[in-house]
Amino acid sequence: MVDEASEAAPTAPSDEALHGAVIVGVIPDQSSRVLKEAARYAKLFDAPLLVVHVDVTRFVTYEDPDGYVHSAPIDINIAAGEGELAKVTDAAASVLDTFDVSWSVRQLVGDPAMAIKHLADQLDARLLVVGTRKRGLGESIREFFTGSVGARLAHRQHRPILIVPLGEPVADDEEIWPAS
Question: Does residue 172 fall inside a structural domain?
């Protein structure tokens, strides 16, 4: 079953239907390995799979008592987040059509670790799945200042987290963050 929706869309599955879901955080152009691993665990747990994209160009302004989230753009270009959601939805459809799991897509806003944590609390998620960042100096600097989403989730909530490695592993004798 496929139900693709953003957070405010009327066709989005209810939070009750997603209770105990496996949540997978996905970014555009990410390796399909992350979605495949999440789908394997959703099937293993007989749980729905919720594919989540966090729009970091927007932030939460306030949340209604019914859970509806109001947001505002950090930047005037709000089409960027919509384009990223479309890429994530297309990637999910192409990968997950081969799996026998119920899945849907939801877009969140703000800080990825905090947004995923909040959603996991709402749904009493069974497992969180995220990928590692690509290797490179720019990504290493970004991770140094912002921290990895997986590490931040591990310190801020109690659910198990599956961190799917992307790319080739670093050799035992190689520095992860090369000196400049």
Answer: no
Q: What is the CATH number of the domain that holds 24?
A: 3.40.50.620
Q: Which tokens is 151 given? A: 């590490």
Q: For a pLDDT cut of 70, what percent of the chain falls above it?
A: 67
- pLDDT tens by residue, 35-81: 999 999 999 999 999 999 998 877 656 566 665 555 555 555 555 55
Radius of gyration for the chain, computed over Cα atoms and rounded to the nearest angstrom: 16
Per the domain annotation, does 171 fall within a domain? no
10 domain-assigned: yes
DSSP class per residue in 65-114: TTSPEEEEESSS-THHHHHHHHHHHHHHHHHHTTS---EEEEEEES-HHH
